[in-house]
Amino acid sequence: MQHVTLPAVPAIAFLRGSWLADRKLADHLTGQVGSWHGEATFTGQPGSDELAYREDGQLSFGAHRGPAGRSLSYRARADGGIDVSFADGRPFYRLLLSGGGWQASHQCGPDCYQVTGRLLAGDCYTERWLATGPATDYAITTTFRRMRPSS
What is the pTM of this model? Predict the structure, then answer.
C-alpha cells in the first residue's frame, strides 16, 4: 500500500471509532513468533480532545493461546500531536499523525521501545515497535483497518 497523508480532520477525530487489528510478533532472543488478532476501539465524547483506547483479541505466541488486551489514553495537543498514556496515567509516547508517518520512543528502565507508524490509506495504518535492551529484542507490527458500520 502507498504512504498517504492524514485526511483533513484533527488526528483525534481520525482515530475515533473501531478498527480491526492484526499484529505479528517476533522475539529475536528466543526465535518465537506469534500473532494477535482483535478489535481496537477509540471512544470519547464528540468534540472531546480525549479518547480511551481499548483492544481485545486472541494472542498466539509460542505455546500460549488465549485472550489478550490493553487500554491506553489519547489526549490531543494544541500542536496537532497526541500524548498517549498508559491506563494508569503514566506517559507512554507522543503521536504525530499529520505528516502521514511518525516516530517516537519510550524508555522503560534499561529497555528502549521505538515506534514507527505510517498511514497506508484513509482507513488503514501500521505501527512497528522495536524493543531492545539487555534482555529484550523483539519486533511487533500491527496493521489497523477501520471497521465500517454495518448497514
Answer: 0.88
